[in-house]
Structure formats: C-alpha cells, structure tokens
Amino acid sequence: AQEVFAQSAILGGSGGMFGTAEKEGDAYRLNGTWRYATGAPYLTHFTLNAKIIENGIELKNEDGTPKFLSFVIPATEVTIIEDWQTMGLKASATHSFEVIDVVVHERFSFIYNQFYHPQSVFKIHFSVFADLTLWVNYIGMAEHFWEEAALITQSEPLNGLESVVRSANREIREIVRTVSELTDSNGIFADSFIREVHEAASVSVRYISSAITALYPHLGVKASREDHSINQIFRDYFTATQHHIFTRKTD
What we know:
36% of the residues lie in helices and 24% in strands. The protein is of the alpha+beta class and 251 residues long. It has two domains: 11-110, Beta Barrel (Butyryl-CoA Dehydrogenase, subunit A, domain 2), CATH 2.40.110.10; 120-246, Up-down Bundle (Butyryl-CoA Dehydrogenase, subunit A, domain 3), CATH 1.20.140. It is globular.
C-alpha cells in the first residue's frame, strides 16, 4: 500500500479469470487479456485475477475449481485494447487490457475476499457489495430517465416507472439497514440472506427495465435523438443492464 499509494492512485480492472500467473520463486509471471476494465485510460494501476501455474501445472482448489490470486500492477505494464464500442456508457471507457510476461512480486498479490481492517465497510460480503452498488446505479439512471420523461409526457406508463423506482428505493434502503446491522455486529452474512439480496436486486432490475421499455414508445421522436439527454440515459441504462450479474441463472 505504501508503494501503490505513494502518489495519487486510481485503481480498476477486471473480475474475470482471463489470464495466468506462473510462480517463479517469490514472484509471478502474468500473461493474459482481461475484458471490461472500467475507466481503463484513467487508471494508474490495474487489478486482475489469474489462475496459478506452478511447475507447469495449473493448481486446483479442493472442489476442483482453478486456484487463483488477484494482483495489482502499474498501468505502465499494461496494454489497453480500445474495444469498448457500445451504444452507451461511452465515458466509462470499459476497455480490455493485455499483460505480456509481466513479473510481479508476490506482495502485490491478494485474495479478494480476505480483509484485514476493522471498519464496517470491509465486513460486507463481496457479492452483496457488488449487487447493491450495481443495483443503486440502475435505480439512479431510472430516476433520471423518469425525470426527463416527465418533461415530455404525462402518460400512464410514466406513473408505472415512478412506482417501480420508489419501490426499488424502499427495498434497497431496508436491505442496507440490515447490512449495516450485520457489519456493526458480527459481520456474518448467511447464505440465505446473500441469495435474498441477489434475488431482490435481480427482480427489481427486471421490473425497472420493463417499466422503461413500456414508457419509451410514448416519448416520441425526441427520445430517438442521440443529442437528447433521455436518449443517452436510455442507451446508458441498457448498456449497464448487459452486465451478467443480474442476468445469469442462480442456483
């Protein structure tokens, strides 16, 4: 941390398992191409996950899944691949990046769900943290869409989106209160609660998406103009919802 944050630092990267880390003494040789690093051109350091290779053998966990570590490396060791050609969220610049034969000391590796500090924020279960941060972004974009739509039309679907957004806000506030109570006490998140949060967020986002698509045809040509704010919000929202977190099937 003293080295990484010796100067102003902006960290970002990929949660995908798109590369390898070959053990070489007390260091690792990193290779791979990782997708979807939000803010890639602005970062000073990249984080990535890599499968561990030792003596030419890919290591496995007890359950047979690949053993991996997360790493943080300077942006100077990374080649950015400018492939973020989406209809929305253009400024997020969520490009891919490539790492070729970068050797990094093991002290720059970490286990993403192990924490060492006492503050409550470090006790939040990672998947709950991910669900809530993405969910609240979708709600925020939906609110913005509703506000802009109200300037264009007073149609019935407008009330439907407002209702869905208000319901989502109430639901997420209740969950956040529970999360705060858990982190302030023992910091133990039951599997049932983790699944409950994920299901609530997934269902909520489906309702929001349906409400937006129901309203959109009532907004006229303005909503189809790329230079109109409501069109940008529409494109941003439906680019964001392509994130797999709320679309993948769960057990």
